From TrEMBL:
Domain Circularly permuted ATP-grasp type: 91-466
Protein name: Circularly permuted type 2 ATP-grasp protein
Domain of life: Bacteria
SUPFAM superfamilies per the UniProt record, alphabetical: Glutathione synthetase ATP-binding domain-like
Pfam families per UniProt: CP_ATPgrasp_2
InterPro entries the record matches: ATP-dep_Glu-Cys_Ligase-2, CP_ATPgrasp_2, UCP005522
Length: 490
């Protein structure tokens, strides 16, 4: 009789018969509270798939991604110009209650960041009151004195924000970092949904999923809202560095979704303090620019004089109030990893509220106490350079060799202000299709917020998955992939 019970249990487990999540919170399988019926239905439907069928569908998805040109570039790999971002067919699912918590937390964080940026480029109250060390902000390489005293429309500096969120072993949402300069990845959110509905329609059938297709229209509307005063029909453009940029696919995709021209620096010209776009019919005024290149390359007259990507005179037109740039120049100081450590204080200072989403505990190595703690616990911490992104330049203590730790200790002592450290979080996992079958892999979530007169958060966001077994690094440039993010409306 026991053999019959075991076989029946295995049959019902199906795809997950060998699935194991020791010591990790699994976002699909081992929630502590009773899951809603819709989540239970997703698990049940997935369990009926077998591996050969799932692999066949995964192959079809990969071929379609390639044919659609949904790629990214890894500059450090000279042998692979364009890569397909690996896509996993098992979705990352959030309940309505979980999404409500995340959405409110992201809105709160974006509001506080915009208050912070206005303040540091105007009155600097938060620095004078000693909430944040002044040298941490004013000495930051991303602080732009050119922005001092400039009143951006609506007080909005961060029009597009990506907040990287993880869950710990108890399932709590924690903010890992903010992306307030030129956050990327939203195109994959939308394309992943389209791909999922084409390749796995039977899994999504009848489920009340929150839609993701309105992002482009929402973004265009927000950028029109913050156009210079007096403009009734603003011209919005997307400014790209060009075809060799790693995210060029996304630039093309978003321009199409927004219904706006995709331009490069050579397509724009400044005359008498106003920005124009070159067209076959002559010069056409431009009022809002969604820029996808960094501050240093925007205007060779102000920043990098060797830049061939930007627009001479753009900053002058910006300071005159004749054009809106999204995100604003100088927003990088708000997503610096050292400033991140002060975000809970920033929220309390400007909003008089407790943070809805907590930070991961962070030690600032520029401070003597933080450096001493990091050096004493290097083998137990994640140490990151404050200005890097993409998973570059960090060390994960428990996964490093002694030689790697010794080398990193030298770097840390040589330039402590360049680093922060955090504990290794027991990141949550999701079932993921791997070579050996369905296995647990670590995931994170990047919700995207769009701000004009108000802030709207795209339901779900980009779910990135660390495809290498045991890896905590989910970045695409470091071997990660992505999943469709489902937010259950009920």
């Amino acid at each position: 009789m026991s053999d019959l019970i075991d076989r029946d249990t295995a049959r019902r487990a199906g795809l997950f018969v060998a699935y194991d999540t020791p010591d990790f919170f699994c976002e699909l399988m081992n929630r502590k509270d009773a899951p809603p019926d819709s989540l239970a239905l997703v698990r049940e439907r997935l369990s009926h798939f077998d591996l050969p069928e799932l692999r066949q569908r995964a192959g079809a998805a990969e071929a379609e991604l390639y044919n659609l040109g949904i790629t990214f570039t890894v500059y450090t790999d000279r042998d692979a110009i364009d890569r397909i971002l690996p896509f996993d067919l098992i979705p990352h699912v959030l309940t309505a209650a979980e999404w409500d918590h995340v959405e409110r937390g992201v809105r709160q964080r974006v509001t506080a960041i915009n208050h912070f940026l206005w303040d540091i480029y105007h009155e600097k109250r938060i620095l004078k009151d000693g909430i944040i060390p002044a040298e941490l902000v004013l000495g930051n390489p991303n602080y732009r004195p050119e922005m001092e005293g400039l009143d951006v429309p609506g007080g909005v500096y961060v029009h597009i924000n990506g907040t990287d969120i993880v869950r710990d072993g108890d399932g709590r949402f924690l903010v890992l970092e903010d992306n307030a300069r030129t956050p990327s990845g939203v195109s994959y959110v939308i394309e992943n949904r389209h791909m999922m509905l084409r390749v796995m329609p039977d899994l999504a059938a009848g489920l009340d999923l929150m839609p993701v297709d309105e992002y482009g229209l929402r973004l265009r509307h927000a950028l029109a809202e913050v156009a210079p005063q007096g403009v009734t029909d603003p011209q919005v453009v997307l400014l790209s560095p060009g075809i060799y940029n790693s995210a060029y696919f996304e630039h093309v995709f978003l321009a199409r979704e927004m219904g706006v021209p995709l331009v490069e620096g050579r397509d724009l010209v400044v005359e008498s303090g106003r920005v124009y776009m070159r067209t076959v019919a002559g010069l056409r005024p431009v009022h809002s620019i969604y820029r996808r290149l960094n501050d240093d390359f925007l205007d060779p007259q102000v920043f990098n004089p060797d830049s061939m990507l930007g627009v001479p005179g753009l900053v002058d037109a910006y300071r005159r109030g004749n054009v809106t740039i999204a995100n604003a120049i100088g927003t990088g100081v708000a997503d610096d990893k050292a400033v991140y450590a002060y975000m809970p204080r920033i929220i309390r200072y400007y909003l008089s509220e407790e943070p809805i989403l907590s930070n991961v505990d962070t030690h600032i190595c520029a401070e003597a106490e933080g450096l001493a703690y990091t050096l004493a616990n290097l083998d137990r911490l994640v140490v990151k350079p404050v200005g890097e992104s993409g998973g570059y330049g960090l060390i994960i203590g428990p996964h490093a060799t002694q030689a790697e730790l010794d080398d990193f200790r030298v770097k840390l002592l040589a330039d402590p202000s360049n680093y922060i450290s955090q504990p290794v979080i027991s990141l949550s996992v999701c079932p993921t299709l791997c070579e050996a079958g369905v296995e647990a892999r670590h995931v994170d979530l990047r919700p995207f917020a769009v701000t004009g007169r108000s802030t709207w958060v795209l339901p779900g966001g980009l779910s990135r998955v660390a495809l290498r077994k045991g890896s905590l690094v989910v970045n695409s440039s470091q071997g990660g992939g992505s999943k469709d993010t489902w937010v259950l409306a009920s």
